Design the sequence.
């Protein structure tokens, strides 16, 4: 019998325990207060002692190591950590709002909303992955929505930290997690692949958009293992109006081989926020599951199904989103130099993707129309010109997107795009020394000064040697 | 308290001075030396003098197999190590040799055990390179944390109350919490002859208040250390390996 160590009105290290808000399989969660701390707080207390699940304490040890190291708006703030040898507990910010769990009553959700949720969760998970943590238990009840609409990820008890010892790995030979959301590689004993979180998010998006769980709910290992070789029913079969781009994204997330999914969460978020530019492969059009022979081949492919301890992950730095800002009116030598720089980066990093940006500056006085004097749609002309610029790079469609941003403030528009789309590197041409540019101020200087990512300022090759 | 730990100095003056500087800069208040002051490198006298000086000022120090071999020609070693030790014996004076001969195999400090190699048989000099060896070493002590060297590649092992083992290769600069609910065995990398592919000198900083350990890498003048080895006529490979950290 597990001894109840904590009851309402208990005082622990100055925290006053109030009511119990949750009783889970591994821990109980209490509402607590402490004089001097205004934030609403929760205390998580693991079950200990004889009869307690050994996983409970190990999972608590992991969370106790990981949570205090996490930063940012997408994780609850860690307030205090109890001494494991005396009374283990974790006090964290109580996130206002609700989890995604109640949304299960409203399924299937509209496609736009599914994409919106997907984008928010992918962005939050990208933040987590950048802090070297793989969540490994992404599911509706672990995703909170603040009243502001911001996502907060909860429960790091099953998570893996790439720079800390993984206490769960050796302790438990059977995979831990939530059956419907467990990735194939987790079932094979791999806990270190960030793309496992993509699979779980894929399950969630599939479920939220169809009201059907792609791999059922069975918790039997033999049933769970079928996802190693059996593909889910294509969503378009369940809902004929299912958008091609969404099916493309969801089925890509559910690929049994991690390297067939997105290289990073940021790249997934990018696709979710630019549906019109998602490259549609055969995944998008699929109406039937794979044939018996295809499935059989996978079933007996030991590379896919055997347990393994090694994950072949791509480091985040190898799959950046690169944005190149192109001034279509600039000299051709400058635009060539930009292309040569982009080419060097893309050639060394096959998982990188390129977003070509152009800012359409509104006239300050005259009212703009979308049509020019000859009646051409200016926006489309610019998109065509951007694709034309990128054409010599011969990039796969999945690695290239083009964007015309409408703004009076080109630098601001580029910076905003970079921020919203988690751009890792901006390439931009140097300021033109012409009078007009000096009057307007330098776009590249502002971008370089204010960007939160790397910026490379590109100039054309020297044409003549300068006199010394 | 911040404790700086150094293992496998191996008479590498350039590496050890750089590490000591880095440790003091980071606020180290106490020094622990985990053996193998000599062997392989070109400055055994300086290394032993420095160790003696540190011990005189309160540092803890244990014996390593190369230090033991100085006083015992029967100790078996590979050819290069043997050649280096033969030469080292002819460099060290009485005082240095007495200091090495007087070092203990293990030292206990609070809930920590210091030992050069496997704590279950400290004078057998077994390498702790996996969970099996780590659990054997941990079974021989009650200490919460065992700290050793000898392997020249850093590693962290933990044993849960149910004797389940975990293994981990630490990342430099990232503190690892030494959780109280389990016991830990920490293998330090080498100051004077790293063998994990990174030529920078390896050491560690233990924080007894936060109960965590941070593995540190300090770059040093490898060319000077290698040139000194060559100048003393020691096997050329002992100089070359320093550049690659092998």
Sequence:
């Amino acid at each position: 019998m597990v001894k109840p160590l904590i009851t309402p009105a208990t005082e622990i290290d100055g925290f006053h325990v109030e009511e119990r808000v949750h009783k889970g399989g591994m821990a109980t969660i209490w509402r607590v207060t402490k004089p001097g701390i205004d934030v609403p707080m929760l205390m998580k207390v693991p079950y200990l002692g004889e009869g307690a699940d050994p996983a409970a304490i190990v999972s608590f040890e992991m969370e106790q190591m990981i949570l205090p190291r996490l930063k940012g708006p997408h994780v609850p703030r860690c307030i205090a950590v109890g001494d494991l040898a005396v009374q283990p507990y974790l006090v964290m910010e109580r996130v206002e709002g609700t989890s995604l769990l109640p949304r299960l009553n409203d399924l299937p959700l509209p496609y736009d909303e599914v994409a919106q949720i997907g984008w928010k969760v992918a962005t939050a998970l990208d933040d987590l992955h950048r802090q070297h943590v793989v969540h490994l238990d992404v599911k509706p009840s672990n995703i909170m929505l603040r009243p502001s609409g911001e996502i907060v990820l909860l429960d790091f008890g099953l998570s893996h930290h790439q720079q800390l010892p993984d206490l769960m790995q050796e302790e438990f030979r059977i995979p831990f997690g939530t059956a419907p959301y467990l990735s194939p590689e987790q079932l094979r004993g791999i806990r270190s692949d960030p793309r496992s979180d993509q699979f779980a998010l894929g399950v969630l998006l599939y479920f939220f958009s169809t009201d059907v769980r792609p791999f059922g709910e069975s918790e039997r290992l033999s049933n769970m293992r079928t996802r190693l070789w059996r593909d889910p029913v294509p969503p378009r079969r369940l809902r004929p109006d299912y958008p091609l781009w969404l099916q493309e994204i969801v089925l890509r997330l559910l690929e049994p081989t991690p390297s067939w999914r997105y290289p990073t969460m940021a790249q997934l978020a990018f696709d979710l926020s630019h549906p019109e530019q998602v490259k549609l492969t055969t995944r998008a059009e699929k109406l039937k599951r794979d044939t018996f022979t295809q499935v059989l081949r996978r079933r007996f492919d030991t590379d896919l199904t055997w347990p393994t301890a090694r994950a072949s992950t791509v480091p985040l730095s190898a799959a950046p989103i690169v944005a190149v800002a192109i001034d279509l009116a600039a000299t051709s030598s400058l635009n060539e130099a930009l292309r040569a720089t982009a080419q060097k980066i893309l050639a060394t990093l096959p998982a990188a993707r390129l977003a070509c940006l152009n800012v359409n500056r509104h006239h300050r006085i005259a009212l703009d129309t979308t049509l020019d004097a000859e009646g051409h749609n200016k926006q489309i002309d610019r998109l065509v010109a951007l694709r034309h610029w990128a054409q010599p790079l011969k990039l796969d469609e999945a690695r290239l997107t083009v964007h015309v941003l409408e703004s009076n403030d080109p630098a601001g528009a580029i910076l905003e795009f970079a921020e919203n789309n988690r751009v890792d590197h901006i390439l931009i041409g140097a300021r033109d020394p012409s009078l007009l540019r000096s009057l307007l101020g330098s776009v590249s200087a502002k971008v370089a000064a204010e960007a939160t990512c790397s910026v490379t300022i590109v100039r054309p090759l020297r044409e003549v040697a300068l006199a010394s | 308290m911040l404790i700086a730990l150094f293992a496998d100095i191996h008479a590498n003056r350039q590496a050890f001075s750089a590490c000591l500087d880095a440790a003091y800069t980071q606020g180290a208040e106490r020094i622990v030396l985990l053996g193998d002051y000599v062997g392989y490198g070109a400055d055994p006298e300086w290394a032993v003098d420095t160790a003696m000086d540190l011990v005189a000022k309160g540092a803890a120090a244990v014996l390593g197999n190369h230090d033991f071999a100085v006083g015992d020609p029967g100790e078996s070693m590979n050819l290069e190590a043997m050649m280096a030790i033969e030469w080292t014996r002819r460099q060290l004076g009485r005082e240095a040799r007495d200091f090495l001969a007087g070092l203990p195999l293990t030292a206990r400090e609070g809930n920590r055990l210091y030992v050069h190699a496997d704590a279950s048989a400290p004078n057998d000099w077994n390498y702790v390179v996996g969970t099996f060896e780590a659990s054997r070493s941990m079974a021989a002590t009650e200490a919460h944390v065992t700290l050793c060297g000898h392997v020249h590649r850093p590693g962290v092992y933990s044993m849960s109350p149910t004797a389940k083992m975990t293994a981990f290769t630490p990342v430099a600069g990232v503190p690892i919490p030494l959780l109280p609910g389990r016991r830990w065995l920490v293998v330090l990398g080498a100051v004077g002859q790293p063998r994990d592919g990174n030529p920078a000198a390896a050491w560690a900083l233990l924080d007894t208040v936060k109960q965590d350990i941070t593995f540190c890498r300090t770059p040093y003048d490898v060319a000077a250390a290698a040139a000194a080895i060559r100048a003393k006529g020691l096997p050329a490979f002992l100089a070359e390996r320093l550049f690659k950290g092998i």
Q: What stands out?
A: The domain at 2-244 of chain B is CATH 3.60.21.10 (Purple Acid Phosphatase; chain A, domain 2). Chain B touches chain A through 18 residues (CB under 8 Å). Residues 116 and 203 of chain B are 14 Å apart (CA to CA). Residues 13-25 of chain B form the longest helix (13 residues).
